[in-house]
Each structure stands twice: as C-alpha cells, then as structure tokens.
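Good morning,

Attaching, inline, the backbone tokens for the sequence recovery test we're adding to the shared suite. The designed sequence is right after.
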C-alpha cells in the first residue's frame, strides 16, 4: 500500500525528532536537554511532538531502542557471516573498538542513561536492563559455542571489559583504550577455549 504525502509526514517528523534527540541526549546528557529544545531543533510543533511521543520519557526510550537495534544489528551481522564463534566475538569487539575511536564518542549510551535514571522501576532503567541482558546472553551464547564450561563467567568478564573500555574511551587515548580492550578480548577468548585442566 502506498502512503499518501500527508500520511508520510508524521513519520518524517518522528524521524527528525528521534534523530535530534539522539544527537543531543548522547552529546550532552538526557536531563540537561528539554523538550522545547528538541522541538525547536527538529523544527516541528509541540503538537507534533506529543502526537509521536506522549512524554519525554517515551522519547528517551525510543532513543535507547534505536541504539539497541543498531548494536543488535552489528552483533547479528557478525554471527550471520558464518564465521566460527570465536571470530564472531572478535568481530563484535572490533565493532566496539571502532565506536570508541569514532569522532564525538562519549561512552556507552546505556550506561550514561542509567546513571541519570537510577530508579530500577523507571522505563528508561528497564530499557537499559533489557539491552544489557540481551548483550550478555549473546556473548554467553557465543562463548558457549567455543566451550560450554565457564561460558557464563567468561561472558561477564567480556561485558565488564567492554564497560571499562567504553568508560575509558571518552577519557583517555581512544586508540590505546581500543588496543587494550581488543588484547583483553583476545586473551579471554583464547583462555576460555582451553579446558580448565589443560
């Protein structure tokens, strides 16, 4: 079914709102950016904003959902390439390192958001937890393909290294942080592949 121009306009406005919010939330923090600024920068009316996002919280959840989908897409591409699980883990780590080295990198959008929304019942906090559980489950599944025993602990180690690299990457030399992270992942994957009694 072909959508009319009037039907497609709200979707374009939603995209502008989400793109604007994503840029400013990530660059400046969530609490520091008000709805009025997003409306002005996206060049939409207040009514248009509230038609697409009933509240600022719903916009924040949409922003994090978009970030989640992008990260899932990278991980799924690494797995779908048909490479061995250890190489898929390396590819995921390379994607993380590439993000750390990208211009304007300001850490993990999810860790940044949860720092601003510590209430575990808040929808923003819940969105972060869902994303992090998916990431941990994905890494655990890949490590279990390398060797099932110890996969849970190794996956938690991978996620902690990732979190540390994301925090360090916006504070110190991103090239050094990325190299250190990738070396850590390589060591983890190799160590995990060896049976404990080997």
């Amino acid at each position: 079914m072909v959508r009319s121009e009037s039907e497609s306009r709200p979707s374009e406005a939603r995209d502008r709102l989400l793109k604007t919010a994503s840029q400013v939330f990530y660059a400046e923090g969530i609490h520091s950016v008000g709805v009025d600024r997003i409306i002005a920068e996206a060049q939409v009316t207040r009514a248009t904003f509230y038609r697409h996002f009933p509240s600022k919280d719903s916009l924040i959840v949409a922003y994090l959902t978009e970030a989640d989908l992008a990260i899932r897409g990278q991980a799924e591409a690494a797995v779908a390439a048909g490479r061995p699980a250890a190489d898929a883990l390396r590819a995921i780590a390379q994607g993380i390192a590439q993000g750390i080295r990208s211009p304007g990198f300001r850490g993990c959008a999810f860790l940044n958001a949860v720092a601003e929304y510590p209430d575990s019942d808040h929808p923003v906090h819940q969105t972060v937890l869902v994303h992090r559980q998916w990431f941990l489950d994905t890494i655990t599944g890949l490590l279990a393909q390398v060797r099932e025993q110890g996969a849970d602990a190794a996956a938690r180690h991978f996620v902690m290294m990732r979190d540390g690299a994301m925090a360090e990457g916006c504070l110190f030399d991103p090239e050094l942080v990325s190299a250190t992270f990738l070396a850590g992942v390589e060591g983890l994957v190799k160590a995990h592949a060896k049976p404990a009694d080997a």
